[in-house]
Amino acid sequence: MYCGGFAFFLFWNMHIMLVIQ
Length: 21
Fold this sequence. Notes:
Blueprint: H1 2-20
């Protein structure tokens, strides 16, 4: 569960960076 949450956090971070660009 923790690993899944960490992967989701990384995915969300990448999504936000793409949106900001």
